[in-house]
Design goal:
The protein is α/β, with parallel strands linked by helices. Helix content is 21%, strand content 43%. The chain binds zinc ion (ZN).
Length: 204
């Protein structure tokens, strides 16, 4: 009976859980930095859409240039932003020789360090914008109210993965222009044995 209950709870969690997605290292570029790196007036080339409406993977790639190393072939995500931003994992930071990049919510660039970007012969030095993305949950207002969650709230989330992990400090981000998804970086996704299609449940 106990086993049956456990199985049921697990099954229900799988049905109601939020889809997990692993975000690899990536770059968002401003119009100004697209001009500098690819040429004046250059248009980024969309390759496929991301789960969040309006966001897309671009064909373009850049090399990240840190004080202690480089990471080539880093994907650019569109559309352009008002200011460039580079999101990496802590493992990436080690490879770039950047000791302790701040963990931030996307778009919160105050106090973040800079980094170099290079494409062929062209390069730009961002004065700021390097961060490790704060793990977060995207929810629509309807989903948020169903789960009794509010924008900006920090919750615990258990991954229903081959190596389950309970993450703390998962920020809830509510927006009408979003699709329900938990975003982990590759370090986090690897740590919990993530496979495409896995889900997570919010714990209270
Ligand atoms: Zn996200």
């Amino acid at each position: 009976m106990e086993n049956l209950m456990e199985t049921l709870v697990e099954e229900v969690s799988r049905q109601v859980g939020i889809l997990l997605e692993a975000s690899g290292r990536h770059v968002h570029l401003s119009r100004h930095d697209v001009d500098t790196l690819f040429g004046a007036g250059y248009q980024l080339t969309p390759v496929r859409p991301l789960s969040q409406p309006g966001q897309f993977v671009c064909k373009e790639r850049v090399t990240l240039v840190g004080q202690g190393g480089e990471l080539p072939n880093v994907v650019v995500l569109g559309p352009e932003r008002s200011e460039s931003q580079v999101e990496i994992s802590l493992t990436d930071a080690t490879r770039l020789g950047i000791p302790a990049p701040p963990v931030r919510q996307s778009g919160k660039l105050e106090g973040t360090p800079g980094i170099g970007l290079r494409v062929g012969e062209r390069s730009v030095t961002l004065p700021r914008g390097l961060m490790v993305a704060q793990r977060h949950i995207h929810l629509t207002p309807a989903e948020a109210s169903r789960l009794h969650l509010e924008d900006g709230q920090r919750v615990k989330l258990k991954t229903l993965t081959s190596r389950p992990v309970i993450w703390e400090d998962v920020v809830v981000r509510v927006s009408a222009a979003s699709a329900p998804a938990v975003h982990l970086d590759y370090d986090e996704a690897n740590a919990c044995g993530f496979h495409k299609g896995d889900r997570g449940v919010v714990l209270w």
